Amino acid sequence: MVTTDEKGPLTAKKKSVIIRSCDGDEFLVSESAAVLSTSLKKILEEKEDRLIHLSDIDNKTLAMVIAYLSTHADDGLSDDLKRSFDQEFVSGKEFDVLKYLVLATDTLQVTCLCYTVAKKMADIMKNKLVEWVRREFDIQNDYTPEAEAEIRRLDAWAWDDRQLEDD
Amino acid sequence: MAYSFPEEVLEHVFLFLSSDKDRNAVSLVCKSWYEIERWCRRRIFVGNCYAVSPEIMIRRFPEVRAVEMKGKPHFADFNLVPEGWGAYVHPWIRAMSVAYPLLEEIKLKRMVVTDESLELIARSFKNFKVLVLSSCEGFTTDGLASIAANCRNLRELDLRESEVEDLSGHWLSHFPDNCTSLVSLNMSCLGSEVSFSALERLVARSPNLRTLRLNRAVPLDKLPNLLHRAPQLVELGTGAYTAEIRSDIFSNLTEAFSACKHLKALSGFWDVVPAYLPAMYSVCSGITSLNLSYAAIQSPDLVKLVSQCRQLQRLWVCDSVCCLSCSRLHRRHGLEALAASCKDLQELRVFPSDPFGGEPNVSLTEQGSSLYPEGCPKLQSVLYFCRQMSNAALVTIAKIGEFYPLSDYALSSLELPIITLEPLDTGFEPSYGACKLLGHKMPRLNVEVIDERARPIPGESCPVEKLYIYRTVGGRRVDMPGFVWTMDESAAALRFS
Description:
Chain A has helices at 31-34, 38-46, 59-73, 79-90, 95-108, 111-125, 130-137, 145-158, and strands at residues 16-20, 26-30, 51-53. Chain A contains eight helices and three strands. Helix content of chain A is 54%, strand content 8%. In chain A, strands 2-1-3 form a three-stranded mixed beta sheet. Among the domains of chain B are: 1-41, Monooxygenase (Up-down Bundle); 44-209, Leucine-rich repeat, LRR (right-handed beta-alpha superhelix); 432-496, no CATH class.
């Protein structure tokens, strides 16, 4: 991964780190991009080693996060350009991809990206049935049929803004 | 399972799910999601305050910031719910004042709100921001004064259609001098004069004010002063739009309006003097919403006004637009002009000028046939408040439906306020006995008979006067007045024995 040249006098040699995904791929990342992740920043502060192994992030997901970090570390880009990059970044991505991405942002503590991905996931979840949500998140329903029916009734009767909008 | 979602990640996702429907779906996924969801639900909508209890709400959702709630049934708008029926908000406020110290918003509709409740709100919620009391009653300007004095971060105070007892016009002067947070102030329902200098100062120190709806007591010649102080307004409700015809008033008004470049919605116009309408023509091109339901404006004046509003999406008028003094030609002319000028019109409401009077000004048949389908292709909703539902009117509705065969037109709401009052031709005449049976068979339904007639208690075959049925998880309510009979077994046994 190539970083842009700094303008002005070079006070220190541009530092890079290598990040390895759980499936063994290695990524060369500028330190200025890496430290946008609070977790990576902490690791780099604590040890001299320039190789960081992430045992629970796969190469595809890691590549996406690094693309995000590098863009946001680029001082040559305006905030507007970064914002439109963020929108582009999540648009069209499959729900499954977003799930891994949001988990990676949580592990790496990249708060802004976490919100962007969470919002995109919520947008996709809108108007979906419970059954869809369970399937996509691979969750077993642990309610008894009676308990589920009771919650459905309560929810529909007590707090539901659908029917009474202009009434 | 390949992955498990940490709680905080799910919380982020849930926070972006804003509708109750989606939140409800999430809480049904599994028990742990139910737990996570209930702790991060910030907004609650309760469609009927008797369908659930404050205790149930607080137990389920401990961290709520905004509550919206409705009280009396819709037919209360047509004076069909006797005074004292219920929908008291105080038990809710009392419970919330203990459970939700971080509450920021309360929006109520058709509820009884006392000054005591308003004082409790003002005292209890340190970061309170939004109070909307829509068609509420039971409070005075003293209660409003305590809100003004204590809610330092108040953004919105909206009293639309509420009945407020006016004790003092000085409540506005209770807003402290450092209160600059107001975004919306709607006091159009107040009857008496407000302290104009306090209002002027408040408007001047509210740089974020977007909505200002005045009451009838604010005279037209004061309006320019206010507009000069708030050129950023997006929504304006004028006071009385009347004054003796004077060129200086007219030019002041014209100048003040022309400085307001962001206005999108206009309302008010009480006692309108049409000669002053051209003073606001400069803002008309940007107007998307025009509420003339308080203005007894005649058809030719309406045509002139509306033809300036090319971007109009919502129009509320009063049926005197097509009043008896106009010829049938004029009546058609009003709606034709609308169709010709306002291609973006989406919503039209026609209110009765005298809702409880005798003869209607115009019948639905004539109105309906004037709605030309080719005129407003985006029209989605026509709300027509009619007093008589004749066969002819039904035929008209059917015809309107035929005009728009591709279903891009929907007669989405048609109000039939009186149909519950007199069971004359409907063939439906529920008796006390039938209601008792219903209440007994459906324990989750609250079946209420509202009957103000003289005692003794009517017999089982006696037809009921008014009936209100709703479903509830909160159980029987305990605050009914004597003229309400709940039709469950125990109450029936008590009352009918």
